[in-house]
Specification:
Elements: H1 11-16, H2 20-58, H3 61-65, H4 79-111, H5 115-129, H6 132-144, H7 152-176, H8 180-188, H9 193-204, H10 206-221, H11 225-229, H12 249-257, H13 262-295
Helix pairs in contact: 2-13, 4-7, 4-10, 5-7, 6-7, 7-10, 8-9, 10-13, 12-13
Length: about 300
């Protein structure tokens, strides 16, 4: 009968021991992580606390019902700026969604490892990290300078360029997570690839795709720099005409915060609170969509 190696009974005890130096290093690293996290939470809490204190005190019914005041005026609100921001954001998402969805679908379903797909991914990654002010300057060169006027269309185009990379990346990632067996099942039934994509893979990844669109909306909702070069701002309703300066909330906050008028500064705090609340709501909606789909 062959010899069988008998494990050393003392080995598990030796393995279970932790050297004092390692335990001390673990405690130091844990304490350092807790301190850094506390500093971050304290900083963010201070910012949010000041925003709530100053924003809520300036928030009132007039903010949503009256237009932005002129210099030296005591009354006024942000109604035209809020409406303009909604229109510009809607234009940006309406342009970015089909482009981002189709580009992400190509990368996940058709291109995959092709040279064209690699080039598109590279350009998309560059756009993801590109400063928004450069995008605004680019759109200014193409759509503002040649026509000699600012416009809401140029602002919407700038916001769309910012939102497209987010939707492309999210769509590609979500479609890549769809099991290949679903595609094979659709192909086995005789469905062409286009029908498999629209009826199978898009439906399987719809929660992630919708989440990407919502996050892209939150991403562009508070952009200021590109709008300074494209839509600029004014103190009036756009009245359906997007040619010329279009009032919007981010640029209004920027201008009012730097002004010497007290009521303008209060309206800037109220506008900052509104944008923060909008981004928070969109983020919560995105998480709810993901969680609801995961439960299913």
């Amino acid at each position: 009968m062959p010899d069988v190696a008998v494990p050393n009974a003392a080995a598990p005890a030796e393995w279970g021991r932790v050297r004092p130096g390692r335990r001390a290093a673990d405690r130091v690293l844990r304490a350092f992580s807790v301190c850094v996290s506390a500093i971050g939470v304290l900083a963010l809490g201070s910012i949010l606390g000041m925003l709530l204190f100053r924003g809520l005190s300036a928030l009132g019914p007039g903010v949503f019902t009256t237009v932005t005041p002129g210099p030296g005026s005591q009354d006024g609100g942000l109604a035209n700026a809020i409406a303009g921001s909604l229109v510009l954001t809607a234009i940006g998402i309406a342009v970015a969604t089909p482009i981002g969805l189709l580009a992400g679908t190509y990368l996940a379903e058709y291109g995959r490892g092709s040279r064209l797909a690699v080039s598109i991914r590279f350009v998309n990654d560059v756009l993801l990290s590109a400063p928004s002010i450069l995008i605004g300057l680019f759109v200014y060169t193409l759509m503002v300078a040649p026509f000699g006027t600012y416009s809401g269309w140029a602002g919407g185009a700038a916001l769309a360029i910012i939102a497209i990379p987010v939707i492309v990346r999210t769509t590609e990632d979500m479609l890549s997570l769809v099991p290949a067996t679903l595609r094979e099942a659709g192909a086995a039934l005789g469905a062409p690839p286009s029908r498999v994509i629209t009826l199978v893979t898009w439906r399987a990844a719809r929660a992630g795709i919708v989440t990407g669109i919502v996050l892209a909306t939150a991403r562009i909702a508070g952009e200021t720099a590109p709008l300074l070069f494209t839509a600029l701002n004014n103190n009036f309703w756009f009245a359906g005409n997007l040619v010329g300066g279009v009032s919007n909330l981010p640029v209004t906050i920027y201008q009012f915060a730097l002004s010497p008028y007290g009521n303008w500064q209060e309206l800037a705090w109220a506008g900052a609170l509104l944008i923060t609340a909008a981004v928070l709501i969109l983020s919560v909606v995105a998480r709810h969509v993901i969680r609801k789909d995961a439960v299913r």
